[in-house]
Specification:
With 481 residues, this protein is α+β, with helices and mostly antiparallel strands. Helix content is 21%, strand content 37%. It folds into two domains: 222 residues, 2-Layer Sandwich (PmbA/TldD fold); 248 residues, no CATH class. It has nine helices and 24 strands.
């Protein structure tokens, strides 16, 4: 693959173009899915190929292939060039101008203690089998699902600017769900995804089997739980739940392509427009969101993005104020930024890199604070664990979130379990209501493997970490009647 990247550099540099790059990649993905005590899907697949971008007179051309040869690079490069020339005729007055980036000759590899693809398939299936078996032994559980996903991407990036970057990225994840029936109701409870860029040692550290009986029992308990009172009350949210709220109400609205209207049809735009930078109060003074694509084991920690921009760490919201975005080399100059934030990623060699959410996390309290102390400060409220349903409008402003497990808080203590809880707010109102955070001991790097964006749709992964957090005076309702 390296030889082909070097060949591309030699050929493309002699062309009448502004810029070109290539990504030559080899992917391997293994996914295992069990329903009850039976494997329902086992997929182990590999793919190879390359994609070439050409910039000609301010317009892009892109083409890709699965055939790895110098002759095919010649053909695909010519095709991308022809597309760019044709696009330049139709671009009107707009010209793509790329932000500057230093030349990089580098290699980045995910630190891995145990290669997930060297662990016998039987051992992985057996672990999921035992998890499901433990859940099915709990009276009231009628069905179980469990799954494991392992990924590896080996890629060479090369550009006409002279960058040559090799990256080897591993990602591992596992989770499961118990479904319970009884009391004229059905409920589910999940050991939810906790994906990281790590080896199989991450799977072994999750405590999958150790938590299976607890998860199953909680699914059954939800059958007999009460629904919440409706009204205005306080919330204490755990990191796994907050990961989704952060993703939808902070991550997406601060993608610069969305802010500028590049990304509108599929996933909407954003209220967090550039004139608000440095002035708009997104949240309370406790709200600090840091994008960190250098985060250890972070899902967007790849060393360099798919435009060859080195991964970085920066504030997006500082002391509650909107101060920056995630960006690419194409959109950063449109708001006067000299350098991209390195947020261009593609889900395949055959996909064009687009602006994606970075590893974006809510920072914990600098002062000692436990989840129990947050709860102790609530007279009437609800504690929520895990992700559930959600809905958010096209401008990322009005939203509704559910969860996976709920407890009523009364006079500073968790009391009865609840079910079917939802809460509603607007993004600024919600984050301005935050008045308490647990400290770094309780911070968790939760995240997502299947964030959808673009037309045609692409899937991306990123970490959205958080501590426990307390929010005041939020509208709470019932998810179903």
């Amino acid at each position: 693959m390296k030889d082909l990247a070097l060949y591309f550099m030699d050929v493309a540099k002699g062309m009448d173009i502004e810029y070109a790059d290539i990504r030559v990649a080899h992917y391997r993905e293994q996914s295992i899915y069990l329903q009850d005590l039976s494997p329902k899907s086992i997929v182990d697949e590999e793919s190879v190929g390359f994609g070439i971008r050409v910039l000609y007179e301010g317009a892009w051309g892109f083409a890709s292939s699965t055939e790895l040869s110098k002759e095919e690079i010649d053909r695909v490069l010519k095709r991308a060039y022809e597309i760019a020339r044709a696009s330049s005729i139709a671009r009107g007055n707009f010209r793509v101008r790329l932000a500057e980036e230093p030349v990089h000759i580098a290699k980045f590899e995910t630190p891995v203690e145990k290669d997930p693809f060297e662990v016998p398939l039987h051992d992985k299936i057996d672990l999921l089998y035992r998890v499901n078996d433990a859940m099915l032994k709990v009276k009231g559980v009628v069905k179980t699902h469990s799954s494991m996903e392992l990924r590896k991407r080996h890629q060479f990036f090369a550009s006409t600017e002279g960058s040559l970057i090799e990256t080897v990225i591993y990602t591992t994840n596992a989770g499961y769900t118990a479904f319970a029936s009884g009391n004229n109701d059905s409920q589910q409870r999940s050991f939810q995804d906790y994906p990281l860029n790590k080896g199989y040692e991450h799977i072994e550290s999750l405590g999958l089997l150790e938590n299976a009986e607890r998860i199953a029992n909680e699914a059954v308990m939800k059958l007999y739980a009460d629904e919440p009172d409706e009204g205005i009350m306080d919330l204490v949210l755990d990191p796994s739940h907050l990961s989704l709220t952060i993703h939808e109400s902070v991550g997406h609205p601060t993608e610069l392509d969305r802010v500028l209207g590049y990304e509108a049809n599929f996933a909407g735009r954003s209220f967090a427009t550039p004139e608000k930078l440095g002035k708009f109060r997104y949240g309370s003074e406790l709200v600090n969101f840091i994008a960190d694509n250098t985060l250890s084991s972070g899902l967007a920690t790849t060393g360099f993005d798919d435009e060859g921009v080195e991964c970085q760490k920066w504030h997006i919201i500082k002391d509650g104020i909107l101060v920056d975005y995630s960006s690419t080399r194409e959109v950063a100059p449109l708001i006067g930024q000299k350098r991209s934030r390195g947020s261009a990623r593609a889900d395949s060699f055959s996909s064009f890199p687009i602006n994606r959410i970075p590893n974006l996390s809510l920072m914990p309290s600098k002062d000692p604070m436990t989840p129990q102390e947050l709860i102790a400060g609530v007279d009437k409220g609800i504690y929520i664990e895990g992700r559930g349903s959600f809905s958010i409008d096209q401008m990322r402003l009005n939203f509704q979130f559910g969860g996976d497990l709920f407890y009523e808080i009364k006079n500073g203590k968790k009391v009865r379990m609840l079910k079917n809880v939802i809460y509603q707010s607007t993004t600024p109102e919600f984050w301005n209501s935050l008045d308490g955070l647990s400290d770094e001991r309780f911070w968790e790097p939760r995240g997502f493997l299947t964030c959808g964006k673009g037309e045609p749709i692409q899937s991306a992964q990123m970490t959205n970490g958080a501590p426990y957090a307390r929010f005041r005076n939020i509208k709470v309702g019932r998810g179903r009647r």
